[in-house]
């Protein structure tokens, strides 16, 4: 898993994550973060393998990415607002 905690005015780009055990990527306690051109994959039968989890964050934009997992492609936790998701290819997975 990749954890991005307490970022401000940052960009996450061109990262690939394959077969992570649980969340592939976590963005937590962050503000004004752009994440794009990501590739995340796990088998469709792998449990609890969220692609990206966003928690307690504001102004997060995720775009132009391919996410296929056994659970949620993108999950948004409590305390998060102003989240923008666009141009995502999601599947397999439970959606956003």
From TrEMBL:
Name listed for the protein in its UniProt record: Uncharacterized protein
Gene Ontology annotations of biological process type: carbohydrate metabolic process; cell wall organization
Primary subcellular site in the record, as a coarse category: secreted
Keyword Secreted on entry: yes
Superkingdom: Eukaryota
Localization (cell): Secreted, Cell wall
Recorded GO MF terms: polygalacturonase activity
Keyword Membrane: no
Family: Belongs to the glycosyl hydrolase 28 family.
The entry's keywords: Cell wall, Cell wall biogenesis/degradation, Glycosidase, Hydrolase, Secreted
């Amino acid at each position: 898993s990749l954890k991005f905690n307490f970022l401000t005015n940052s960009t996450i780009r061109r990262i690939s994550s394959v077969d992570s055990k649980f969340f592939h990527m976590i963005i937590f306690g962050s503000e004004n973060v752009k994440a794009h051109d990501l590739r995340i994959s796990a088998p469709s039968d792998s449990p609890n393998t969220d692609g990206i989890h966003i928690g307690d964050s504001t102004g997060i934009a995720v775009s132009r990415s391919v996410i296929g997992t056994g659970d949620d492609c993108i999950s948004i936790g409590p305390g998060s607002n102003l989240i923008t998701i666009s141009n995502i290819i999601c599947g397999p997975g439970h959606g956003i």
